[in-house]
Structure formats: C-alpha cells, structure tokens
Amino acid sequence: MSYARKVRAVCHQKEPMRHDTPPWTPATPDPERPAQVRRILRLFRPYRGRLALVGLLVAASALVSVASPFLLREILDDAIPGRRTGLLTLLALGMIAAAVVNSVFGVLQTLISTTVGQRVMHDLRAAVYDRLQRMPLAFFTRTRTGEVQSRIANDIGGMQATVTSTATSLVSNLTSVVATVVAMLALDWRLTVVSLLLLPLFVWISRRVGNERKKITSQRQKQMAAMSAMVTESLSVSGILLGRTMGRSDSLTQDFTRESERLVGLEVRASMAGRWRMSTIGVVMAAMPAVIYWAAGIALQAGGPAVSIGTLVAFVSLQQGLFRPTVSLLSTGVDMQTSLALFARIFEYLDLPIDITEPARPVRLETVRGEVRFDGVDFDYDAKDPASPKGTLRGIDLTIPAGGSLAVVGSTGSGKTTLSYLVPRLYDVTGGRVLIDGVDVRDLDFDSLARAVGVVSQETYLFHASIADNLRFAKPDATDAEIVAAAEAAQIHDHIAALPEGYDTLVGERGYRFSGGEKQRLALARTILRDPPVLILDEATSALDTRTEQAVQKAIDGLTAGRTTLTIAHRLSTVRDADRIVVLDGGRIAEQGTHEELLALDGRYAALVRRDAKLSPVVPAA
C-alpha cells in the first residue's frame, strides 16, 4: 500500500456527506485537538529510521558544542598563564576541530531532515489529490476550484518550513539546551540559577505569540484560498471572455485589488504578531552576560567564593550557547502552533467521507454485452435531509437491451441528466438498482465500470495539451494508427491533418482553439478510442448549429453502431430513430414508446415535437 493511502487511512473519519448545502465552505479548523498532534507525528512514522539518524547527529553535535567552552576555560586558566605552548596549541586545535565537526553534522542534519520533510509534503499532496479524485460529483458542484487548488498549493506549501526543519530544530535545540544546562551546572550552579530565572517568562510570552499567529494564519489561508478561486475563475478563457463581453474587466480588477489589500493586512499582522515581545526576549538575553559579570562581582565583594576568569568566560559562552537554542526553541514552538492551522485545513480534506466506494469483493466484468436496466430506481440528492428536494427520480423501470438505444427527453429539471449519471456511478441510487448485464453497478469494480461505460456530454473538456495527448487520455497505450482511425470515425481527421502541426497541435485552455463542433468531434474520437460497450450521450449536440450538428451526428451514428446507447436529448431531431423514447416529467416516466407511437398518442412528446418545430428549421417528420 502506498504511503498516500496510509495517510488517508490514518486521517479518515466516517461522517455523513451533505449534498444539499450552498457552495461548500470548510468548517473552522480546530488546531487544539490533541489527536491532531498525533496525526502529524504519524506522518513521519515511515521515516523514523532517518529521523533516528538525525537524532544521533544532533546529540553528537550538542556534545561537541558544549566541549568548546571547557577547552576555552583551560586555555584561559591554565595554558596561557602557565605558558604551556603545547597544551595551548592542542586546545586551540580542539576548538577548531569542534567547529569543523559541528559544521559537517549540521550539513548532514539539513540534508536528511529536508529530504524527510519533502517526502512528507509529497505524501500529503498525493493523499489529498487522491482523496479529491474519489470524491462524489456533488462535492465539486459546491466547491470552488480555486479553494481546492489553494489547499494543495498554498496550505501544503506553507508547511514546508515546519515539516523540513522543525523536527530537526526541535530535537537539536532541545538537546543543546539540556547539554548546556548540565555543563553550566558543572561550572557554577549559582550563576546557572541566575541565568534560568527568566526562562518561564520567555515560555509564557512565546505561547501567547504562537496563539496569536495561529489565529491570523487561519484567516490568511482563507483569504489566499479566496484569491486563488478568484484568479482561477476570472483568468480562465471563459472568465476573460465573460468579463470583456460584459464590460466588467475593470470591476474584476478592482475586486481582486480589494482582496489583495486584505491579504496585505493579514500578512503584515502575521509578520508583526508578537514581534515586540519576542524582541524583548532578545534584548534580555543580550543583557544577560552583563548581569552575570555583575552578579559575579557582587558575590566577590560580599565575600563569596571567587570565580576564575576562565570559568566566568566559559560560563558566559555557555550561557549564550543556551540562549540561542532557547530562542530558537521558542520560535519553533510559535511556528508549530502556526502550522497547526495549516495541518487542520489539510486534514479537513483528508477527513472528507467518500460516498461512492468500491465493494470489499467487487465483481469484475471480463466481457460486457451491454444490457442496462433501471430496476425501481429512486434518487434524491440527500435522502436523509427533509429539507432537500424530493422526487428527483421516482420509480424508474427501464431496460435497454444489449446493442439497443434509448432516448430520454423532457423539460429542464425533469431528471434526464441525473438518470444518465446513475449508470457510471457519478451518483448512487437511493432506491432500487441500476444493472449492467444483470450486475448492480454498485457491485462492480471501478475499472470494469469505467471500461464498460463511456460518456459524451455537451460540456466537452479538453486538457491544455496536444490533440494526440488528449485522445490518448482514453487509452494511454494507443498507437498512432489507432488515434488516426478514431479521428476518422469521428469525422475530424481531415481537419487535424490540415493543421500545421497535425496531431501535435495544442488545443489550448479547455480546447478554445477549436470550434464547438470540432471539440465535440474530438471528444467523440476520444470515446471511440476507448471503445466502451455502453455509451451515454448527454445532449451532445444541443449547443451546435444545425450544420455542425449534422456533421457531429454523422460521427455519433458511427460511434453508436453496435453499442448500447442512452441518449439525453434536447433537440428531438437527434432521437427520432431510437429504439425507444422515454419522456420524463418531474422525475417520473410520463410516456414511452417509439417516435411514431408517441406522436400518435398526442401527449407530452407530441407537444415537445411541436415546440421543437417552432424553434428549429429542421422539423422531425412523423
């Protein structure tokens, strides 16, 4: 099992998923949960061997560091006064060697800890992305794309310093503090007590600063997510077209400027939070050597025991060696409290429940005939919430024989698209069953279901990549010959071949370098390459002009030959030849039959045909 999956297993908490809420807004993170620290520590568990090595390097570095003041004391109290040149040389070389060894250990610590930290960040990114890939479609209909991107980029990126250096810094500084305090006690316990009197105050100040920065960080990340969402929406091709054609470019710029100004204020607050208090700690620590010299002088004048110059200098050196890691330790504590807000936002995504899951023992369809059956199907967007819309689909009983075709028509909101989404399990039924070759789709493994069902929708999506790469998304190992054959079947090969770069032509953002009909035929070619036995056409030609529709329809006719086809129709001219036509009204089947039978019935379908005839020059014949 990949570590990304282990992260998901560690973080998953089962909670009901709501489908009826307004645009999804994350709950306010609660960084104080004790379990959260344990979850963070578990992220480092696979790398405990490397972290143990870092710990050994840290301990060795701390021991080497505290040795230098003792060597200095011997130089001042013995080697120089006694004119012992050999001893002086040896002690000086010892101090130089200690510095060299410390530097080497420091580089190794940085290398190992940075590698571990980057691996942890990689695991988090992969786990969050994988989690989002398995979220139900309803989640993405309520969540802004920029918010999702911000979680992966800004939040995980903001934790870089914490996960790459905090663990090492914590262990290193803690070890240095302990070793230094022991060394100071060995030199003079009275001066040690004086040096440590203010440490509790420093700890209290750092905790206050950490809490303050943590709150600001949570606000800052939300603001960054809002800006990311605004950029994603307004600077896409669609956003630019809408802004310019509506004359709102200046307004969008002003909105972004206001959001950016809010972020400036939060960044300044985050940077300055507790800065004066932490500066006070720095001033006090800088003044402590003077306090030690003063205390030693007062003690001597009062008749106390004399402290040698070597001991006093060595002690002050140790004291400075104590204060540096102490300040760093306090700063690390502040950074960790700040990072808890970021971890909370990441764990919030990792904790999102997944409604549509693969069964423990899934059925694998090796060969698919293509029979599709709706057996007493009901569907509500949230069956558990009384406030959610009811009756989205009710009592749907339909069978599409293998290789047969069924068209579904009806007014807007009648449940046509929802019905089509149940076959590939973009949603799960709340009652009844959807079966392929007699097997409930909820019992199928995801790979079998994905191979069995292909979807071509009105909303064609193409990646910002070459034509060939977009087609190979359906079949990564497709040969050039297979790609060309699929494009020919989709009536788009001649157009591609006429382009200067042919199949290497970049399609642009969401395929905007191509017309609607060309994009639709590219989508058809992609589906042809995948060769699914069951095909769903969700209003695939409704946005096209009549001439383009005829070209695309010709490609569709080639694609549907021999396949089980479920067509969601907007223009009735595209479905009159279907084996069976179903009219949905309010989520229920109102009528069904062939084109001729429904016209003779002179009911809802006949009314739709008459309406269609008024709107289109192409009139379906009886």
Automatic annotation (TrEMBL):
Alphabetical UniProt keywords: ATP-binding, Cell inner membrane, Cell membrane, Membrane, Nucleotide-binding, Transmembrane, Transmembrane helix, Transport
Extract the Pfam families matched here. Answer: ABC_membrane (PF00664), ABC_tran (PF00005)
Query: ABC transmembrane type-1 domain spans which residues?
Result: 52-338
Task: Using the UniProt record, give the first listed, main subcellular location.
Answer: membrane
Specify where the region named Disordered lies, as residue ranges. Answer: 13-32
Report the subcellular localization.
Cell inner membrane
Topological category with respect to the lipid bilayer: Multi-pass membrane protein
The transmembrane residues are 51-72, 87-112, 167-187, 193-210, 278-296
InterPro entries documented for this protein = AAA+_ATPase (IPR003593), ABC1_TM_dom (IPR011527), ABC1_TM_sf (IPR036640), ABC_transporter-like_ATP-bd (IPR003439), ABC_transporter-like_CS (IPR017871), P-loop_NTPase (IPR027417), Type_1_exporter (IPR039421)
Database matches in Gene3D superfamilies: ABC transporter type 1, transmembrane domain, P-loop containing nucleotide triphosphate hydrolases
Residue ranges occupied by any ABC transporter domain in the UniProt entry: 372-611
| Cellular component GO terms held in the UniProt record | plasma membrane
- GO terms (BP aspect): oligopeptide export from mitochondrion
> Which GO molecular function annotation, any one, does this entry have?
ATP hydrolysis activity
Q: Which SMART domains match?
A: AAA
Q: Which family does it belong to?
A: Belongs to the ABC transporter superfamily. Siderophore-Fe(3+) uptake transporter (SIUT) (TC 3.A.1.21) family.
> What protein is this chain from?
Putative ABC transporter, ATP-binding protein
